[in-house]
Amino acid sequence: MAKTRIFADANLKIGTIDPNIYGSFLEHLGRAVYEGIYEPGHPAADGDGFREDVIALIRELGVPIVRYPGGNFVSGYDWKDGIGPKAERKARLDLAWKSIEPNEFGTDEFMKWCKKTGIAPMLAVNMGTGTPKDALELFEYVNHPSGTYYSDLRRKNASKEPYGVQYWCIGNEMDGPWQICGLTADEYGKKAVNTMRMLRWADAKKADEAGAVKLIVCGSSSVESPTYPEWDRVVLEHTYEEADLISMHRYYEYKPSSENPLEDFLGSADDMGRFIDTIRSTICYVKAKNRSKHNVYISFDEWNIWSQHAKRTAPDWIKAPHLIEDVYTFRDLLVFGGMLNTLLNNADIVKTACLAQLVNVIAPILTKKGGEAIRQTTFYPFRYASHYGRGETVRSISTAGTFESAYGSARLINEAVTYNAEKREVCVFLCNYAQEAEEIELELRSFGDLRCAEFVCMADNDLDAANTFAEPEAVVPSVCEPVSVKEGSKALFSVRPMSWNFLRFVY
Ligand code: AHR
User: Fold this and answer.
1) What domains appear along the chain, each with residue ranges and CATH number?
2) Residues lining ligand 1, Cβ inside 6 A
3) What is the pLDDT of residues 355-385, one digit of tens each?
4) Is 9 in a helix, a strand, or coil?
């Protein structure tokens, strides 16, 4: 059995983990909203049509913030279509997903759902067909207390109190040729900075005050985009002083037809780390060029596994079509766990992240119309990370071997170590990408006299295993015997081939 030594020290901190890295995303796409979180008439729906069985799963997942309403959808969306008496709302064409948007669920419904679930909203404004003025009017509707046309309209329609939305995405993937009214970096940079200034002026708080709005500019939508990473540099040069965060999006995919499909797929998590390195460098470059004292962070506000090669089978121009409802396998779970580790290992710069998406559409939760809601394989690593990956990430140094993937070299043992001083807990999230069991010699120094309180493992001989409505618990975590710790800091244990592991130590 091969052996990997992993060393971590409480003093070697990477950064404080912002709980908002466990955010998610709900787009008006397929059945994410309609038949996902909102299904009036469903036996588990409340008086507002919000599915409480779905809310229970989202609470279990531990999502603190949700981005809404898109995604590509937002670039053609007029938010004014989604407010006011439902009987008067108009159905519209959604060009992004070739669907009918009935507008039965809009901003006020989303805010009500957020309040019920205890989730913070992250709103995206339309930078495609929308203007800076439209964005300002949405801001006024949502955040201004009263005494203006849109704030009084909100008071009349839905809420006397302003919603106090803090996170604002200034458009979505504006570099993509698929984006409705996509822009060049220069055009977008100019439009974005003007919009951001208007939102800042409208905000009751000053930019650096606690609770002030956080503005997120669109970074490259993908490393495959021909304008990457030049787009990011140009956009940041226009917006640096106004931006709090720059967005990153990345989806990985298992491609059975590639030469080494498994290795290539397993290389995704390390590749995601290199993508972050590039954007980190671009931010540093613009900061230096601007002679700025201001910091811009990363909002990794779309990440997941998505089989993009799958063809659309749903008919065009219907409401809530079955679109991109990927069923996640155990193989996907392994890569997904590594991607979570990458986010944790960059906790100093990644301050928000959104698992794209939350329900039905490339999501950890699947629902049946009128029926049950189930947890996908990927639900579990996310749940453990969001509940226990809190506090700080500490640097881990490892002797892990490597393998070659289409993305370059990747580690066979992929781990993240988190330290929650308040809870007196040290957690290790570890993927074994080797096809054999691996012996792990772990040394966790300077934390205190540690004892292993929990060891959970997910392993499966069938990489295609998945949870389905017929068999919703085919892939679930197993509880293992906690490992013994010598001298309060050293543990020797083995992990199963191709496995995801979670160890929690307390002191
Ligand atoms: O999450 C699905 C889509 O992926 C989003 O609408 C878009 O932003 C991205 O390309």
Assistant:
1) 2-10+394-506 (2.60.40.1180), 18-388 (3.20.20.80)
2) 27, 70-72, 172-173, 221, 302, 356-357
3) 999 999 999 999 999 999 999 999 999 999 9
4) strand
